[in-house]
Amino acid sequence: MKQIFRFTRPFAVVITIGLLLASGIPPALAAKQAPVPMVPQNLSGLADTVSPAVVHISVERTVKDKGPAIGPFKGNPFGGGEEFRDFFGHRFGPQRRPEFKRPGLGSGFIIDRKGYIVTNNHVVEGADTIKVIRKDETEYPAEVIGRDPVTDIALLRIDAGGDLPAVPLGSSADLKVGEWVAAIGSPFGLQYTVTAGIVSAKGRAIGSGPYDDFIQTDASINPGNSGGPLVNMNGEVVGINTLIIAGGQGIGFAIPIDLAKDIIAQLKSDGEVTRGWLGVTVQDLKGDLAEYYGVEGKSGVLVADVIPGDPADRAGIRPRDIITAVNGQQVSTSRDLTMLAAKLGVGDSAEVTILRNAKPKTLSVQVGQRPLTMASADEKRSQTQKGEFGFSVTDLTPQTARRFNIEETSGVIVVGVVPDSKADTAGVHQGDLIIEVNHQNVSSVKDFKKLIDHHKTADGLYLLVKRIGAGLKVIHLV
C-alpha cells in the first residue's frame, strides 16, 4: 500500500530550516538569497486579463502582376506552329493577369478606450481595407492614424463607441535577461494564441534599420504575430512582436515599448514622426583605424561623408572628422550617434564635439529633419534625376554599400525606379550597381551623367550592372 505524506506548511518550513542549518547557511542569509520562482505556475490569469485588448487584423491589398499568366500553355496549345497564332490570338500566348486582391493578417493591441490600436507598419502598409476583429468576434473597419516605416510601427483607430479594454504599457528598460514574457496574437491566423518564454537578450541590432534595438525572446513567434504585444508577468506591454529569423527556432524579436512610446505619441498627435538629422554618414572606429587616428579608448565615430547642403555641411563638419559627443553626451558607436540625433528637436541647435587633426573642436549644428527613407537622403547627392528613363542613382559611399550589401568601391547605385518607366521595363532594379555605360567605366554620379549624355543614341544605352544574387547583367535602355 502506498502512503501519501502531505506536510502542512509549518512542518515544511521546519524541515527547510533544518536542512539549511545542516548545510551551514544561516536562515536569515538564505532568506535574502531565496530564488524567485523560475517557471510561472499559471498564465491563464494573465491571458484572461490581456487577451480582450488584443486584436486580430485582416487586410486586403490590390496587387498588379507584371508577369505572364500562369497556366497550362506558354504559347499556343499545340506548340510551335505560327499558323495557329491568328486563330488562337493572344488568348493562349503570354498574358498579364489582371489586378487581384491579396489578403494579409497580423495582430495589434488596444492602448486606450477611444480605440487606438498599435501594430506593425508592415501589417497595414499598402492596404486597401483594414478590418479589426476583437476577441468577442465583433468586427470594425480601421483607419490608419499614422505610420513610421523606419521603426515598423503603425497606429490605427476603430470607432467602437468607447469603453474598450486597453492593455497598460510597461517599461522595457526594466526588463532583465531571463525574465518570463508572453506573446499574444494570431500566428498563421490562429487567433488569440498565447505563447511564453524568456527574454533571451536585449539591445539586439540585426541590420533591419537605423534604430535596431530589439528584445530577443524564445517565446514562440510566427507570421501573424506581427504587431501583437509581448507582455511581462504583470500584464504590461514591454514590446511589439515584429521579426523572426527564417528557419530559426526560439528566436523572435520585439520592438522595445520604451522606443515605441514616443513614436506612438507623435503618430497620435501629428500622424507622422519627425527625427533630428545631422546629414553625415559615419563608421565605427575599430582596431587599426582607431589607432591610426589616435583615438583613446576607441571612442568616437569617423565621418565618412557629409551630405551637401545638410546641417553638418553648413556647420563646417568635414569628412574624416571624428565625432566624439553631441550636447555633451559621449558618442562611442555609429548607433549612438543615430539614436542621439533622432532625439534632437528639428530646428534646435546642437553642440557637436569633433576631433580634427587630433585637436578637439565644438561646432554648433542647426538640426534638420531626417528624411523618411535613406533613399531621400541619397538622392540629395544624386545629380542624375529620374528623367526620361525613370530611375535615379547615387554615389557609392560606405553607408550605401552597407545598405545594399555591396563590397565594390566603384560605380553608382540605383536608388529609385519609376514603375512602368523605360528603366523598369528594361529590368533596372533598385540596388543595382552600375559599373559601365557602353563599355566606359563609371566611378561617380558626375561620370554617369556625362556618359549618359555623351553615349545616348537612337539605339539606346547599354548598362553593365552587378546585382546581388545574379552577378553581372547587361541592360539595354531605349
What's the short story on this structure?
By secondary structure, the protein is α+β, with helices and mostly antiparallel strands.
Which SSEs are present, and which pair or pack?
Layout lengths: L8 H15 L3 H7 L10 H7 L3 E10 L21 H4 L11 E11 L5 E4 L1 H4 L4 E5 L5 E3 L1 E6 L4 E5 L22 E6 L7 E12 L9 E4 L11 E4 L4 E8 L7 E5 H14 L5 E2 L2 E5 L2 H7 L7 E6 L4 H5 L6 E5 L2 E2 L3 H10 L5 E8 L2 E8 L1 E2 L4 H8 L9 E5 L2 H6 L8 E6 L4 H5 L6 E5 L2 E2 L3 H11 L5 E7 L3 E7 L1
Antiparallel strand pairs: 1-2, 1-4, 2-3, 3-7, 4-5, 6-7, 8-9, 8-11, 9-10, 10-13, 11-12, 12-13, 14-21, 15-16, 16-17, 17-18, 17-19, 19-20, 22-23, 23-24, 24-25, 24-26, 26-27
Describe it for me?
The protein is an alpha+beta fold and 478 residues long. The chain has five domains: 1-33, no CATH class; 52-157, Thrombin, subunit H, CATH 2.40.10.10; 180-270, Trypsin-like serine proteases (Thrombin, subunit H), CATH 2.40.10; 276-369, PDZ domain (Pdz3 Domain), CATH 2.30.42.10; 374-477, Pdz3 Domain, CATH 2.30.42. 22% of the residues lie in helices and 32% in strands. It has 13 helices and 27 strands. The chain has helices at 9-23, 27-33, 44-50, 85-88, 121-124, 257-270, 287-293, 311-315, 334-343, 374-381, 398-403, 422-426, 445-455; strands at residues 54-63, 100-110, 116-119, 129-133, 139-141, 143-148, 153-157, 180-185, 193-204, 214-217, 229-232, 237-244, 252-256, 276-277, 280-284, 301-306, 322-326, 329-330, 349-356, 359-366, 368-369, 391-395, 412-417, 433-437, 440-441, 461-467, 471-477. The strands form five sheets. The protein has a seven-stranded antiparallel sheet with strand order 5-4-1-2-3-7-6. A six-stranded antiparallel β-barrel has the order 8-9-10-13-12-11. Strands 15, 16, 17, 18, 19 and 20 form a six-stranded antiparallel sheet that branches. It starts with 8 loop residues before the first helix and ends with a strand.
